[in-house]
Design brief:
- InterPro entries: Peptidase_S1_PA, Peptidase_S1_PA_chymotrypsin.
- Keywords: Membrane, Transmembrane, Transmembrane helix.
- The chain is an alpha+beta fold.
- It folds into two domains: 60 residues; 213 residues, Trypsin-like serine proteases (Thrombin, subunit H).
- It is built from five helices and 13 strands.
- The protein has a seven-stranded mixed beta barrel. Strands 1-2-3-6-5-4 form a six-stranded antiparallel beta barrel.
- The longest helix has 27 residues.
- The termini are far apart.
Amino acid sequence: MVLGTGDFILLVVTIIFVVADIILGLCVTFALPNHAKRPGWFSADGKARTFKEATNICPCLEKVFPEGSKAPIKFHKVKHIKLEKRSAPEDLITQQAQEYPFLVSLSIPAYSDDPSEKLFACNGLIQDANWLATTQTCVRDKSEWFNLTVRSGSFFWSRGGVEHSVIDVRENADDGLVLLKVTPPFSGNLLPLPPIKHFYGGNWTYAVSLGWDDNMYQKHLTSRFKYKSFEVQKWTSKSCDSRVSNICNMKERSEISSKPLLTSCHQILGMKTVKNNDFGLTDMRNSNDESTENRESKCFPIYEDTCGSIDREVCQSY
C-alpha cells in the first residue's frame, strides 16, 4: 500500500508528537524532584482559584467543605522550619560525670538471703586512691559499713563502673564525716583536683549540690529509683530571684545526709539535711573567718543559681 502525500505528512506529524511526548516524559521523570512525582502533587504558587478549580487539584476539599466555598482558595508553600538540635539527656549526664568523677555511690544488700539485690545507701566523695568520705547516716548500725558496695566511675548507683569493697572505717571527730578505705583502689582519673576540703566556712560565690536521692535506704519511702543518674543543682551565695535554701550550723551529726554542697574549688560547704532541703555544716574550725564569726543566726540563705552566676573562686595552691 502506497501512502499518499497527505497521509505521509500526517504519519510524520504523529511520530513527532509521540517522540516528543516520550522525551517530555523522560525529562519530567529525571528532572523533577521525587515529591513532585507523587500522586496529588501540585505547585503551591499562591494563585487564587475557585472552589471547583481547587477541588481538581485537591479532591479532599470536598470532604472538608461539603457545601463548597465562595471564597478564593490559595495553595501556599509550607516553609521549612529549621529546628535546633537539643542536647540529649545522655550528653548532659556524660558532661556531669566528667566534671564530677570523684562522686561515688554506696549501696547495701536489700535482703539477708540475697546479697546481689541492693538498695542505694548514700553518696561518697573520693579523697585519694584508697579513701572516700561519707556521713554517719549512710548506715543504721556501725556493723553495716563492711556490707556496703562502693561503685565508682558510673552515672548510676546500680550498674556500670567499678565495684569496690570497704576494708577499713575511720570516723573524723572534727567534722563528723566517715572515711572508708576501699579495695581495689580508685582509678587515678577519678581523683579530685584540687583535693576535697571539709568543711569550708569562708566566702564563696558558686557551688553545686550533687548526688543521687539520699536516704533511699530508708524503709518508709514509697518511691525508689534503680536506674536514675545522679543529679547536679547549681547554687549561689548572691541574691537571686529564685528558690531559697539555707546553710545551717548543725549540732547533731545525725541530722546531715550524704549529698554534698561543693564550691568550684571542691570545698564542702555543707551536706543536705535529713529533714528538709537545707544544708548542714557540722565543722566550725573555720569560725575565725569574719564571714562566719559575724553571723547572727545559725543559718544563712543561698539561692538556686537561675540568674546565671558564673563567678568562680580562685582556688588556693594544693
